[in-house]
Amino acid sequence: MKVTGIILAGGKSSRMGTEKGLIEIHGRPMTRIIIDLLRPLCNTIFISTSNPLYSSFGYPLIPDLHKDKGPISGLYSALSASPNHINLFLPCDVPYMRQEILELLLITANSNPEKCIIPYTDYPEPLIAVYPKSTLPVLNQLIMDGETRIKEIFNHLPTLFISMKEAGINYHAFKNINTPDDLKI
Q1: Residue 15 pLDDT > 90, yes or no?
Q2: Tally of domains within the chain
Q3: Which of 18, 19, 117, 180 could bond 130 through an S-S bridge, CB–CB 3.0 to 4.6 Å?
């Protein structure tokens, strides 16, 4: 199965005060940690951002085709550029993510290639997910309708939620690093 790995790094990092994906955790930038997770699973990797600082990682940068439309625009833009039907998305700020979680998502996507595969902790995790390229028309329509809430896509796309509790997965893997205080943990 060919898979595109897409690192979401297009946020403003306003709560952090500096570009989150470039912050080091245990001596490595968070984006490098995510790249290292994706490389064994994906034949293509993109970074969804317009920030040229991310070019230092050596992967193509995909800017949003629709500016200031939030994460839906990042999903749409990256899916538009992807050569593959199956696309594994990860934000740049989840350095504790584990490869076995990503493998579970991809195994499920292989059996359900037309569905969005979304992990569910205490709530859906739509930015750590698998999206098929076939979702492009619906995402485009949502953007054209002015929708910016990522969770709204579940009302419009075939979606399969995977309970992380039932899979026995510790939620710490989903911890986002959003503020300087988050770095102290």
Answers
A1: no
A2: 1
A3: 117
